Amino acid sequence: MDQVPHTLLVTGGAGFIGSNFVRWVVGQTDARVTVLDKLTYAGRRDTLEGLPADRVKLVVGDICDAALVDRLVGQADAVVHFAAESHNDNSLREPWPFVQTNVVGTYTLLQAVRAHGVRYHHVSTDEVYGDLALDDPARFHEGTPYNPSSPYSSTKAASDHLVRAWVRSFGVQATLSNCSNNYGPWQHIEKFIPRQITNVLSGLRPKLYGAGLNVRDWIHVDDHNAAVWTIVERGRIGETYLIGADGEKDNLTVMRTILRLMGQPEDAFDHVDDRAGHDLRYAIDSAKLRRELGWRPQYGSFEEGLAATIDWYREHEAWWRPLKDQVEAGYARQGQ
């Protein structure tokens, strides 16, 4: 049975994926949205600029603040939980914020939806499954054992297990999704694809970890968010759905594609030392989501979505330019 929410609480709704989700909901539904975001470096008010004030409200706060979370959850029909510390390099340098936000924050939300009987959807990552060999034809599916390899992925794995336990132990009305790597508008320029795009736009040499053979399964953020809404609306309670768009590409191919689409020589980049514990390959089997809920990606190919993303960063230089020097200085200190 469809469960169409009219009032949503979206955690992390000023971040990359969350803000795009809010924009998708406003454009595609009649729902009203309250965004709860701590506005760390990865969440910014301007990601929500231009949205109607009568339908979108931003509350600046922490998902670990139990009193605030309880009040906001009590006003919602459904909670969609995007908020997370998510940068692998940062998790290797300082793991504690990842434990605090990803584990304690999820616990706090679960206690609130339990108390108020509110529908909950938990957004997670394919990184909880570890990685696959480069020559392995297998892909991650809903039954793949968890095998996280970084502080980031291990805390996301812990939060997934909390959700399942609260469903089973307390009857919380929850669904989960694990998604492959997102790209698209409003993504922080520390991330791989927007970093390379903004490097080219800034006249800087793009940077590639190691030989660039690591494989990621890319999905445009709008396709991800359409899938999340489909799960919120029609997903079976207690179920997990993997979201992917058959976008497996190694990082070298992504780099060359960016350069070609931007009119640059495909070898106009520098190699830098590989990241510690860099997972080899992620690949998503989204057959369950497609079969049960009828979702399909709207972007016909990775290159189509990437071209649209490059255009967005060209047109929104005023958004990312103030961040660029600081981001590149941070990478330079690490030799990257």
Largest β-sheet summary: 7 strands, parallel
At the fourth CATH level, what is the homologous superfamily of the domain at 7-187 and 219-247 and 281-300? Answer: NAD(P)-binding Rossmann-like Domain
CATH architecture of the domain at 7-187 and 219-247 and 281-300: 3-Layer(aba) Sandwich
Given helix and strand content, the structural type is alpha/beta
Q: Compute the separation of the termini in Å.
A: 50 Å
Which percent bin holds the helix content?
Answer: 40-55%
- Widest beta sheet: strand line-up: 3-2-1-4-5-6-10
Give unreliable regions as ranges. none
Taken in chain order, the helices and strands follow as EHEEHEHHEHEEHEEHEEHEHHH
Give the overall average pLDDT.
94
How many individual β-strands?
Answer: 12
Shape: globular
Short précis:
The protein is α/β, with parallel strands linked by helices. It has a domain of 230 residues: Rossmann fold.
What does this structure look like?
The chain is an alpha/beta fold and 336 residues long. It has a domain at 7-187 and 219-247 and 281-300: Rossmann fold, CATH 3.40.50.720. The chain contains 11 helices and 12 strands. A 7-stranded parallel β-sheet has the order 3-2-1-4-5-6-10, with helices on both faces. Helix 5 links the parallel strand 5 (119-125) and strand 6. The protein is globular, with a radius of gyration of 19 Å. The N and C termini lie far apart (50 Å).
